[in-house]
Amino acid sequence: MSTSKKIGTEIILNPIEMGVAKFIAKHRDEMNRKNGLKSANISVQSDLEIHINGCGAEFAFCKLFNTYPDFDVYSRKTEDDQGDAILFGKKVDVKTTKLENGNLIAPQWKNNSKEIELYALMIGELPIYIFKGFMTKKEFIKEGRIRPLRNDEPTYFAGVNELVEFETLQF
User: Residue 79 maps to which CATH number?
Assistant: First the structure.
């Protein structure tokens, strides 16, 4: 499978794929509440809306790269996070934003996983997403990328212009 020249590709989920994404999101949200996980949501969206859009983006990413999404619904500890997909043996954390000019961001507290090797950014909203590129963990999760975003929470930040195709990554 070639991954070249996929940046900018639009992916549209069909009604069945959207149903699966909504089903997974709903059950992840319920599991989080059942297990007493506190929401760190600072968005105007509900946790469920965020989960739906995130699951949709993960599904779209996997559809683009012809791989399977993680359908697990159990609550995970951050340090045990296995990512959202596996691409060429690399565990990928798929990030998403609805903002057309969005960037790759991740709260500092949420990125302690020893397993994640690669970050990907999807921009859009169910059912339409656009793939914006990759960044390795060693390039993204480092002190020089921390910025205080919403309510001064330390957040890793990479501009969308810094994201690259898979073939150009150096692990």
Answer: 3.40.600
In three-state secondary structure terms, 141 is: coil
Please, where are the H alpha helices in the chain?
Answer: 15-34, 47-65, 137-140
Between the CA of residue 107 and those of 57, 94, 95, 111, 165, what are the distances in Å? Answer: 18, 14, 11, 7, 23
Tell me which residue range forms the domain holding 64. Answer: 10-163
DSSP string, 28-56: HHHHHHHTTPPP---SSS-HHHHHHHHHH
Domain tally, the chain = 1
Whether the pTM exceeds 0.85: the reply is yes
Whether 170 is in a domain gets the answer no
pLDDT of amino acid 130? 98
Q: What angle do CA 14, 94, 167 make, to 5 degrees?
A: 100
